[in-house]
What we know:
single chain, alpha/beta, seven-stranded mixed beta sheet, 9 strands, 47% helix, disordered N terminus
Amino acid sequence: MSGGPAPEPRPDAAQRAEYLAAVAVRWYVSVLPAPLARAAGAAIGWLFYVVDGRHRRLAVEQLQRAFPLKSAAECRAIARATFVHFGRLVVAVLRFSGLSPDAMRAHVEIEGEERVRAALAAGKGALFITGHFGYWELHALAHATHFPPICLLARPLDNPPLHALLERIRTATGNKLIYKQGALRRVLRALEQNEGVAVLIDQHAQSGDAVTVEFFNRPAATTSSVAVLALRTGAPLIPVFALPLPGGRYRLIYEHPVELPPATSADPVRELTQRCTDVLEMYVRRHPHLWLWMHNRWRVAEPEGEPATGDAPGMPVPDEPR
Length: 322
């Protein structure tokens, strides 16, 4: 007897409850006035700061190591503001994804538009790099209302109905998603077709894909895939960030492309990865409460061995925070 592909596992009760809660929150914040919706997001973040002791302690610990001159009270205050920010982020994305393209454009201003236009005019696509910082999900949505849609590298959620909801949100303005299976081939095809590809570079990378660079003066295993792709294809690396503005608006920033290492570099992949990480660190230092301190970024560094060069087999996708 021949069989087709295995059916998708049915969500369990907890997964269905999570999905229904997300749908209810999305509807609720969509009908609230914007100031009340932002206040609701802040309340959600504050609640998680209170009840999630494990991640609260991790955030404070990592802040103390990243900012050794700050007092314990200052680090706790930044950690609390971080939780509040991520509560606001969830609400902002849920509301923003339901807007029309014209309404989205009215809520953002763009800095560095000419850098995107110039990158695409070169015909090699573009690699947009960022981290779990600011309003990155909202940035991706709004990007496609000003520029051609892009491909987003992502990890599927473990909750199937919640994953489907997030997929609908992320693709609402025409963006496409690339998951781990066959990612390298799809990313190369997108760049060959002069498309943009967005990658998060701030999560702990597995040893097969990792190079160790300095992040806040500590070794951090970081994906090498972005540097490998840029060196292989010539696609420009453009750091992007979305910052909040008064009145519920946002500034979308497209930085100058990251300069490639010289031809004489002994380890161009590691050097280019460090340069990308340095830009992200600059923004996190300016706005520490907008970064995901609850993620265990500094784990055991990769074993010493050959530096990551050439192709990146399978194109490991940077993990979403767990």
